[in-house]
């Protein structure tokens, strides 16, 4: 069976890093691609940042490769995550030989709850003076995340995971979050530690080796993963996967980088690593490993894009990765 992949370059450097990544994928697997649009450019043309045709392509695809969008990001990625019922966002952050990092020993994975918390969209302006936000935490979503975290730890050779939370302040919501995850972990025989997310931020900055897999609510995951990006040498390297039970959307953590868009010098590594996660998700384990090795060798030996101190173009880096695959 040939899997169907929806491809959304989006805006800005998405139009550079996504085509570069498709050339790398072409070197290892033959997929059927459905090229569709989303983001600022299509919104300007048609008034709609997420055309129905795009939503349909993502819903019908086995997986989606997504670049980045600009101003319209929330109007695009939030409905897309919903469309594939993505309940977890996987964000690995590690360092690579040849790339300068603030914390060279960093090697961790953040499993971020992807549907609720303070990002559930329940905000109100009650009066001129008062606005409120409802924080949603359900046992079912926490349980689903916990099951995923246990599977993830088991299948990736981790001893267990650490839950990031603030249950001393948000006693009811983070109370439920932590208790539910701990219960699942104990049923499954997986080690679950926990830490206050504020203390964790300090520990991450000073000694990230204390953590391996971090399981956290939506907002905490957003903040902690950007912190992790800072530890490992920048946004050009960090991939992510929005995973649902049957489908996934794979995208770099970075945005559309308007400051360098059009110059052809964006680092494609984050998007190529995201494609490796897509290959894992579709059980192309050997191909995923080969792609990672080829990118790692390229990071170590060059060519490198300017964000990593080199002067290569996006395409030259992708060519080097493709060469190392053949
Ligand atoms: P968003 O709001 O979409 O998250 P952002 O404002 O966080 O976007 P990014 O688009 O991620 O910003 O860019 C932040 C900085 O990192 C910019 O200076 C950008 O040029 C740089 N950057 C991001 N991605 C890459 C990349 N792939 N290669 C090189 N530099 C990058
Ligand atoms: Mg950002």
TrEMBL record:
Tell me the GO BP annotations in alphabetical order: isocitrate metabolic process; tricarboxylic acid cycle
Q: Which UniProt keywords apply?
A: Oxidoreductase
Q: Which Pfam families match?
A: Iso_dh
GO molecular function of the protein, one example? isocitrate dehydrogenase (NAD+) activity
Which InterPro entries does the record cross-reference, listed alphabetically?
IsoPropMal-DH-like_dom
Look up the coiled coil feature and give its residue ranges: none
**Does the record's keyword annotation contain Membrane?**
no
* Family annotation (Gene3D superfamilies): Isopropylmalate Dehydrogenase (3.40.718.10)
The UniProt record lists the Isopropylmalate dehydrogenase-like domain at: 4-321
- The secretion signal range is none
Q: Which family does it belong to?
A: Belongs to the isocitrate and isopropylmalate dehydrogenases family.
Q: PANTHER family, from UniProt?
A: DECARBOXYLATING DEHYDROGENASES-ISOCITRATE, ISOPROPYLMALATE, TARTRATE (PTHR11835), ISOCITRATE DEHYDROGENASE [NAD] SUBUNIT ALPHA, MITOCHONDRIAL (PTHR11835:SF34)
Stated name of the protein:
3-isopropylmalate dehydrogenase
């Amino acid at each position: 069976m040939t899997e169907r992949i929806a491809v959304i370059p989006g805006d800005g450097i998405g139009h550079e890093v996504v085509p570069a990544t498709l050339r790398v994928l072409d070197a290892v697997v033959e997929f059927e691609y459905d090229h569709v649009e989303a983001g600022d450019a299509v919104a300007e043309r048609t008034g709609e940042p997420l055309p129905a045709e795009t939503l349909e392509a993502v819903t019908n695809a086995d997986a989606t490769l997504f670049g980045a969008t600009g101003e319209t990001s929330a109007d695009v990625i939030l409905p897309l995550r919903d469309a594939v019922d993505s309940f977890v966002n996987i964000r690995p952050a590690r360092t690579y030989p040849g790339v300068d990092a603030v914390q060279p020993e960093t090697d961790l994975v953040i499993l971020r709850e992807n549907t609720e918390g303070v990002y559930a969209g329940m905000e109100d302006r009650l009066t001129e003076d008062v606005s409120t936000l409802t924080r949603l935490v359900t046992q079912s979503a926490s349980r689903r995340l916990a099951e995923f975290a246990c599977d993830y730890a088991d299948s990736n050779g981790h001893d267990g995971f650490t839950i990031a939370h603030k249950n001393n302040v948000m006693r009811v919501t983070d109370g439920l979050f932590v208790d539910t995850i701990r219960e699942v972990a104990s049923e499954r025989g997986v080690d679950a530690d926990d830490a206050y997310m504020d203390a964790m931020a300090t520990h991450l900055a000073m000694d990230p080796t204390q953590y391996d897999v971090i399981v956290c609510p939506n907002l905490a995951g957003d903040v902690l993963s950007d912190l992790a990006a800072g530890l490992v040498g920048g946004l050009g390297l960090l991939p992510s996967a929005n995973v649902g039970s049957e489908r996934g959307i794979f995208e770099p953590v970075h945005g559309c980088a308007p400051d360098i868009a059009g110059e052809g010098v964006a680092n494609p590594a984050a998007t190529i690593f995201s494609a490796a996660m897509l290959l894992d998700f579709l059980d192309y384990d050997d191909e995923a490993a080969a792609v990672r090795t080829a990118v790692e060798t390229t990071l170590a030996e060059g060519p490198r894009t300017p964000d990593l101190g080199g002067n290569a173009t996006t395409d030259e880096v992708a060519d080097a990765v493709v060469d190392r695959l053949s």
